[in-house]
Amino acid sequence: MRRILAAVTLSAVMVAWTTVPAYAQAAGSADASAAKRVNPNWKAPRTPWGHPDLEGTWTTDDMKGVPTSRAAQYGTRQYLTDQEFAARAKQRGNARAIDDARTGTFRNEEGSREFSYTSMVIDPPDGRVPPTTAAARARPRQGGSFGVGPWNSIQDFSLYDRCISRGAIGSFMPAVYGNGARIMQTPNAVVITYEMIHDTRVIPLDSKPRLGSNIQLWMGDARGRWEGDTLVVESTNFNDRTSVGGSVHSTSLHLTERFTRVDPQMIDYEITVNDPQTFTRPFTMRLTITSQPDYQIYEYACHEGNHSMRNVLSAERAYEREAAEAKAKGLPPPPRVFEQVNGPDRAR
Length: 348
Known about the structure:
Blueprint: H1 2-19, H2 30-33, H3 35-38, E1 56-59, H4 82-100, E2 121-123, H5 134-137, E3 180-186, E4 189-194, E5 200-204, E6 221-227, E7 230-236, E8 243-244, E9 247-248, E10 254-263, E11 266-274, E12 283-290, H6 308-328, H7 337-342
Antiparallel strand pairs: 1-3, 2-12, 3-4, 4-5, 6-7, 7-10, 8-9, 10-11, 11-12
């Protein structure tokens, strides 16, 4: 009798768990309206040779309202409640209204849909990027134009500033603009060209041997395969100069990406990061990349218009001259602009 009662109780708990809105996509969200969600029998379109069709121009603009790591208030929930989603939709609507009134080079691209994801990270269950290892914390951090120096050479700038790469994952993470990518397919390969910094990955679908371990690349050495309707891409042979999950990774990084078309205008994209020299455990992020009305990818002429490094370096040399002149006169060094705005205690 006790076993029967226990089984009934457990069953009731499971039913309650599955019916609480917090554990399912919020009503009205883009993720709830995906064709595959509405009709589990929905099938992705096919290429002429029979592979699921991923071709087209896609963006991560719709992910800009979704944080990478989950706020503690959501616990292990992957989705917002209907009420929480309504609040996010209102906030994102206001952001789009402000954006529509803006013009200029750095106009935000806000997307056109709202998703009810509480975070991009879906594993571990708490939805947070795992802690880094002691070895990772000891690595030097990359610089960048939003830092405060020192600015002695171009190596003091990030790879992003230098128009080199945002990395295999960073190239698709939503930024202020330029979040597009073009996917092309052949029977033997999938090609992904990213809009920002214009990296292109050619992913073979055959059994071609991997590169030797001594060859390390910015975007890694990728190999793809189809598992049902999902394109699975495994990449190794990374150098240790790009970042993932907010940290510079090691050469041991192993990425597994999964692309699954779930709607005529949506592809679910999961990335599993396994780098035991950098993170205390593997973790998985989930984004949904989407098509946007009239979205076009233009040339990203990064080097041609990259005045920031030259200007920052010349400004640093000018500051050094002013500091030397002040020292010769027995005066303190002139304040930096950052100090004038934020105060000297926050300059570094």
